Amino acid sequence: MPSASLDARLAKAIVPDYFSVQMHLLHACNLTCAHCYDSAHPSLVMPPTAEILRRIDNIYALGHQLGVVPDIHLSGGEPTLRRDLVQLVAHIVQTHEGDALLFTNGTRLSRALAQQLWDAGLRFVQISLEGPQPQNDAVRGDGAFAKALATLHMLAELGFRLTVSITVTARNFPSLFDFVASLDALALHFHIREVFAVGAGADLQAITPQQRRQLADWAIAWQGQSTVGVEDPVHCSAAPAYARTQAGCVAGRNHFCVDVDGAVYPCRPLGYRVGHIDDLPAMWHGDVMTRLRHRQLNGQCGQCQLRHNCGGCRVHALAAGDLFGADTRCFAAETGQLMTPLQTRVFRASQELGWRLTQARRTLAMLRGSDDATRL
Question: Where would you tag: which of 11, 98, 240, 245 has the fewest CB atoms within 10 A of its CB?
Answer without folding.
Answer: 245
